[in-house]
Automatic annotation (TrEMBL):
Its cofactor is FAD. PANTHER family: NADH OXIDOREDUCTASE HCR. Keywords: 2Fe-2S, FAD, Flavoprotein, Iron, Iron-sulfur, Metal-binding, Oxidoreductase. PROSITE patterns: FAD_FR (PS51384). The keyword Iron-sulfur applies. This is FAD-dependent oxidoreductase. Residues 1-96 form the FAD-binding FR-type domain. GO terms for molecular function: 2 iron, 2 sulfur cluster binding; metal ion binding; oxidoreductase activity. The lineage of its organism: Bacteria, Candidatus Saccharimonadota, Candidatus Saccharimonadia, Candidatus Saccharimonadales, Candidatus Saccharimonadaceae. It holds the Pfam family NAD_binding_1.
Length: 222
């Protein structure tokens, strides 16, 4: 589908959001992703992005950390009215309507699917009965203002900010004593998600069906 670039803004530090107008009638579930393709003369490249905006907003917002890659530079150089091509939305990293306690573990910019899910549910007046563990490299935390507001407005929602580069199942379990009884969503750089997910399965008797993972390719750390 054809997207039209609208605007960009800094979320925190080097994390930037980009907003696109999408075709009328475009639908997706909060937590899904797109494959975004950019072109410039004889150059073309693509990148996967989980959609950060909520479906009710009827526009596609993606957020990323600027790394200096050609794709990121091209994305950051878009002007209002520029066109891009997106494939999707796709993915099953979405809210599960069960009574099982839910845990969301966000690693850096891996917060984007959770931002979409929580924002959509808040808009619909639905419960935000979730514990969010949000790991970041420093105090520059994307979407923090909204997360703090949701905590104030939804007493069933709990968020903890952990500003450190290293993550371990022991650290997660320290903050989540009921970890073994929860549905666990984890989102972030692919190698970190893979490692932590495997450790949770092997060391904490987490069952495969309790663990849902969203991988961000191209990042080695958060």
């Amino acid at each position: 589908m054809k997207l039209i670039f609208k605007n960009k803004f800094t979320e925190a530090g080097n994390a930037v959001s980009y907003v696109f107008k999408c075709p009328r009638g475009t639908m997706w579930q909060a937590g899904q992703y797109i494959r975004l393709e950019l072109k410039d003369n004889d150059w073309a490249d693509e990148h996967y992005f989980t959609i950060a905006s909520a479906p009710y907003e009827k526009q596609i917002q993606v957020a990323t950390r600027l790394t200096g890659s050609r794709f990121k530079n091209q994305l950051n150089g878009l002007q209002p009215g520029d066109a891009a091509t997106a494939y999707g939305p796709e993915g099953d990293f979405v809210w599960q309507n069960t009574n099982t306690p839910k845990v969301m573990i966000a690693l850096g910019i891996g917060i984007t699917p959770f931002h979409s899910i929580l924002k959509q549910r808040a808009h619909q007046g639905l419960s935000l009965a979730v514990t969010l563990l949000y790991f970041n490299r420093d105090d520059e935390i994307p979407f923090k203002a909204e997360i703090d507001r949701w905590q104030q407005e939804h007493p069933e929602f709990n968020a903890a900010y952990l500003n450190r580069r290293r993550i371990s199942p022991a650290l997660i379990a320290k903050h989540l004593p009921q970890l073994g009884d929860s549905l666990i969503y984890i989102s972030g750089p692919e190698p970190v998600v893979e490692t932590v997910g495997s450790q949770l399965l092997n060391e904490y008797s987490i069952k495969q069906e309790q663990l849902r993972r969203d991988y961000f390719p191209g990042y080695k750390e958060f």
